[in-house]
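Justification of resources, computational component.

The compute hours requested in this renewal are based largely on the per-chain cost of generating structure records like the one below. Each record pairs the submitted sequence with a full structure-token output. That output is archived, and it is also reused by downstream analysis tasks.
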Amino acid sequence: MSTEVAVIRQALEKMTPQFKMALPAHVSTERFVRILMTAVSEKPQLLECDRASLYGAAMRAAQDGLLPDGREGAIVPVKGKATWRPMVAGVRKKVRNSGEVSSWSVHVVKENDAFDYELGDAEHIHHKPAKKDRGATVGAYSIVILKDGERSREYMGIDEINGIRDRSEGYKYAVAKGSKDTPWLTDPDEMAKKTVVRRHSKGLPMSTDLDGMLRDPDDEPLPLADDPVPPAPTEKPGLKERMAASGQAGSTPQAEPPKAEPSKPEPLDVEVITTEAKPAPQPTAPPKGHPADDEVPI
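The structure output for this chain reads:
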């Protein structure tokens, strides 16, 4: 294990010039690499991840200007690959630095809290947390004050939040393995807040980098089982099917004539005049039960 840690440390130190170009001025590359190595040491599962994905996750953290310290963001293993996950504190930090939003508060609601949420012409959220024994989490909300003074609110109940959780690839993978190695299980309140933040962000003015940071592909909902599925392409019914549809299923099916090639015109039963007079061929009556629409008019 110590050898693997040393190899990763050496590789990350070689990436220092790239980190320096991506990180904001107030974050030193030395501090960033040190926090990266702490994250790897505290989560040995990252040593088993694909190395390219680990280095890529570290680069994404640097590009977001956030630290993988478990507060601003975290690098977590998902299906054998390391994935960068911005957390609520990191999102709020990024938003404040962008100038898009004046303030952004996010909280979870517990079952013993005094809470009231009202929509309509006079929207408001009233939340007074219980002083002790707050109980289980029942929801989460987000309040944003834009730079022009406008307020925006978003609330999600625990059923909605758990619906997003249950469609998360990372959560499903951890549950299938019988592991708790997912923030949905280790930090459920933080993930509840992140979920409502992402939902709220869809209706807020966001710069491109903020929008990309908030929209994590792995956490996006998968198609539901009852989503409409396009019908499979169907072939044109053959002779047997047409006979069955016309009530002649009991008749002996006749083989369909081979289809003519597109370049050759379909032959017609007409009299052919040659130098030697020949009797004109008589049209052959269709076999009994043969559908009339297969006849060729003369």
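The beta strands are 73-78, 81-86, 101-110, 114-118, 124-128, 137-146, 151-157. The two ends are 87 Å apart (CA to CA).
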